Amino acid sequence: MKEYVKITTENSVGTIEFFHPRSNSLPGHILAELANTITSAGEDENIKVIILKSAGERAFCAGASFDELVAIDTPKNGTKFFSGFANVINAARKCPKFIIGRVQGKAVGGGVGMASATDYCFATKFASAKLSELAIGIGPFVVGPAVERKVGTSAFSAMTINAGKWFDASWAREKGLYTEVFDSVDEMDTEIEKLATTLSTSNPEAMLGLKKIMWQGSEHWDELLMERAVSSGTLVLSDFTKNAIEKFKTK
Fold it and tell me: What is the CATH topology of the domain spanning 4-188+196-200?
């Protein structure tokens, strides 16, 4: 199957779905389309609440495209690469509608950042999470503010430092990354439908006011996340990081 981003609207619920055949690791053009789709859904008067999901079973999102990462050869290209998830996170943050996350499988790197940028996140017990960036000589700088906002400094530090560890869904729920965790996708989808239906008939002005309160203090993230993208785009060109990536490729 070819990669895609699509949105469907039913009973005032907008469902945004993305897919890439490589474990939902997302190239730049898909991330840009995803950010634009979230923004457009936020502006659509026919949509009252948004569900963000991926296709497939095993992986919610494996981060950004590794092929594009290894091809970075200039700071400009590096900044462009790392701004992909920055734009998605900022689109979700500024969206005037609540975004419900549906995490059916593993989340890595930018996928953890994306889950953190939703307002209420459902997951299955298979949705382990990992911030693996340090293992290839960089760090989760761009997604860091979103993840730390959700799980706190201590848990964010643990995920960042222990970059090779999968943190299971129960741990992620305890720390606040996931709001609810289910044994099966069917159970999760049933509860998502219930919440989305309730929110679709709730007062849009009240929900907008609550979202602004919940995201208070993040107003500077347009600049912050871009600064982080610039830093990461420079760091990825260092000899240390290049060597780390080469070692990772041969595993």
Answer: 2-enoyl-CoA Hydratase; Chain A, domain 1 (3.90.226)
The set of residues, in sequence order, having a beta carbon less than 8 Å from that of 114 and lying 6+ positions away, is 52, 61, 85, 88, 89, 92, 101, 107
Q: What is the pLDDT of residues 216-239, one digit of tens each?
A: 999 999 999 999 999 999 999 999
Q: Closest Cα partner for 86 from 45, 127, 134, 147?
A: 147
Domain ranges within the chain, ordered by starting residue: 4-188+196-200
**Token pair belonging to 231:** 């830093």
If you search the block for the tokens 């590794």, which residue do you land on? 66
pLDDT tens-digit series, residues 130-185: 999 999 999 999 999 999 999 999 999 999 999 999 999 999 999 999 999 999 99
Kind and range of the H or E run holding 61: strand 59-61
Strands ordered across the beta sheet of 129-130: 59-61, 106-108, 129-130
Burial grade of 208 (CB within 10 A; 0-12, 13-18, 19 or more) = middle
pTM above 0.90, yes or no: yes
Nearest of 160, 52, 163, 143 to residue 97 by alpha carbon: 52
